[in-house]
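Quick sanity check, Histidine triad nucleotide-binding protein:
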Amino acid sequence: MSETIFSLIINREIPANILYEDDLSLVFSDINAQAPVHFLVIPKKPIPKLSDATEDDQALLGHLLLVANKVAAEQGLTDFRLNVNNGAGASQTVFHLHIHVLGGRPFSWPPG
């Protein structure tokens, strides 16, 4: 996988507002926030898109969801939305798997 802005954040080569970190994941504020609270949960393992994940990634993917929930609670969110874009046609612009966590305002459905 080629270097991405997220790998640069993981390696501390560019700054980010880091909210949480453990051995498997990193959480930081989205610089293009679409809600009052908007952060990204990423694996440290480079997986370009969700469709590139394998059975071996099952525990990691579950871990990312638990981290999203933990940080959402730390940010004071009880209602929030998770979004994963898979591929350019789904508006994925950084090809390193990431979960958007958005909250702090009401959301409508469908999202667009």
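Posting the structure with no commentary besides this: The chain is about 20% helix and 20% strand.
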